[in-house]
């Protein structure tokens, strides 16, 4: 059988699930931008793309050169096509306005242009995470698009995905009917469907958490992780293994491939910070993908996709992956 490219998959989605043509175009443009980012990332020291910019983003994090480059690649690729009403990014304080010379479209695109950027300089997998929302009716308003347009719960996402730049570059995508995985064929320059109907196993013996923060966690997480560590002789009666890549894309990709539970809990380091990961462009798109693959995602007390966002860069605790384990750690928060 001939290979199914991303373009063909999207056209077939239009036939079978009425995926609108402008959404199809949007996904193709994002995929094209991810190819350009993949290319830039792979150049490393050859093109002087490693290291820091010497600037900070709105979160007070030092920006890497590739954070800024990836952000620009996504903005430039997406601003002219007429498919978007606005964009928002980890690397930009405010919503990005579509320049007045271009038509505006129905969708909002929110992204983490380069996830796991502490891993760039050490040649470990990084990625791009994106979420697509519909722009609410503006009732004839013509001024700048404010951040309130973006503040929709994750259940409103019409598409979400990530690209992972690892030994292979892959694009994982959901349009709300399952999760598909595409691998970049570098000779052809196209993403080819290689992973049909990805599912997260319900049970697992693998967990991912940054153990160096243990002393700052709340009681339910202390309890859960100590039970994982207790192994066969503890209450869970099995031995667990641990992985922590420090790129959410890579950790989530492993979970989609062979199961596992990923945690970035709230911790006591900075009482003003309810977790590290950002709701709009990390937790929501990843939770949509994980749920579409049969897994679960909560903030400990609530399904992540049900959270009503209050600001663009808001942070949330995250527990996601194999259902049984996410349900267990969520139940411990209720006890
Ligand atoms: P980003 O590079 O976009 O700021 O995201 C990094 C995130 C996430 O990818 C990862 O899971 C986590 O931060 C790693 O945090 P630690 O450095 O605390 O391990
Ligand atoms: Mn990130
Ligand atoms: Mn990032």
TrEMBL record:
Fructose-1-6-bisphosphatase class I N-terminal domain segment(s): 4-195
Main location as per UniProt: cytoplasm
Binding positions (Mg(2+) 2): 112, 115, 282
Binding site residues for Mg(2+) 1: 90, 112, 114
Localization terms from the record: Cytoplasm
InterPro entries documented for this protein: FBPase_C_dom, FBPase_class-1, FBPase_N, FBPtase
Binding site for substrate: 115-118, 210, 276
Cofactor (UniProt): Mg(2+)
Tree of life domain: Bacteria
Classification via HAMAP family: FBPase_class1
Protein name per Swiss-Prot or TrEMBL: Fructose-1,6-bisphosphatase class 1
Species: Pseudomonas aestuarii
């Amino acid at each position: 059988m001939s290979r199914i490219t991303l373009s063909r998959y999207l056209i077939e989605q239009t036939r079978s699930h009425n995926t609108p043509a402008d959404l199809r175009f949007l996904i193709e443009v994002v995929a094209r931008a991810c190819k350009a980012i993949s290319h830039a990332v792979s150049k490393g020291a050859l093109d002087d793309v490693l290291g820091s910019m010497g600037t900070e983003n709105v979160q007070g994090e030092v920006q890497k050169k590739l954070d800024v480059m990836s952000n620009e690649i996504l903005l430039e690729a997406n601003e002219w096509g007429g498919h978007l009403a606005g964009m928002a990014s980890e690397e930009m304080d405010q919503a990005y306005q579509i320049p007045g010379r271009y038509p505006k479209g129905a969708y909002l695109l929110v992204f983490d242009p380069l996830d796991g950027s502490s891993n760039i300089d050490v040649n470990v997998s990084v990625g791009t995470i994106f979420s697509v929302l519909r722009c609410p009716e503006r009732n004839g308003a013509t001024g700048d698009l404010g951040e309130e347009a973006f503040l929709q719960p994750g259940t409103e996402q019409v598409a979400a995905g990530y690209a992972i730049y690892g030994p292979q570059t892959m694009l994982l995508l959901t349009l709300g009917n399952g999760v598909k995985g595409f691998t970049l064929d570098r000779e052809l320059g196209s993403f080819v469907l290689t992973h049909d109907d990805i599912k997260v196993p319900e049970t697992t013996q693998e967990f991912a958490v940054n153990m160096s923060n243990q002393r700052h966690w709340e009681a339910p997480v202390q309890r859960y992780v100590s039970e994982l560590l207790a192994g066969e002789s503890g209450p869970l009666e099995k031995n667990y293994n641990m992985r922590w890549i420090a790129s959410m894309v890579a950790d989530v990709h492993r979970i989609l491939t062979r199961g596992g539970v990923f945690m970035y809990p709230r911790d006591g380091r900075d009482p003003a910070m309810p977790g590290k990961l950002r709701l709009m462009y990390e937790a929501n798109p990843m939770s949509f993908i994980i749920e579409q693959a049969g897994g679960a995602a909560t903030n400990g007390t609530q399904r992540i996709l049900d959270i009503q966002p209050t600001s663009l860069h808001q942070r949330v605790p995250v527990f996601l992956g194999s259902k049984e384990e996410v349900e267990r750690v969520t139940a411990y928060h209720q006890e």
